[in-house]
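Dear colleagues,

As part of the handover before I leave the project, I'm documenting each prediction I ran so the next person doesn't have to rerun anything. This entry is a single chain, and its sequence is reproduced below.
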Amino acid sequence: MRTARQAPSSHGLGLADAYELGRSLGRLPGRLIIAGVEGEDFSQGVGLSPRVEAAVPGLVGHIVAAVAAAAATTEPAAPGPSSCGGR
């Protein structure tokens, strides 16, 4: 018996595949920071495991600090046509 073939989806990509896709398409940012929490329990249920839930605030703090540091070191964008009299 033949089974229906699933259409490809970006939801099935792993991190390395997503990075390579972005690189292949010329869409990678100048700087890429990856943050994550390693999963502990992948059984069915609602919510996070206690250890993962406890790790989230620290991860958010690291992300906020990384974004703030990147924003502080990023040069402002050059003015576009709309800010130059609408040329």
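The chain has a mean pLDDT of 81. Residues 68 and 74 are 10 Å apart (CA to CA).

All the best with the project,
I.
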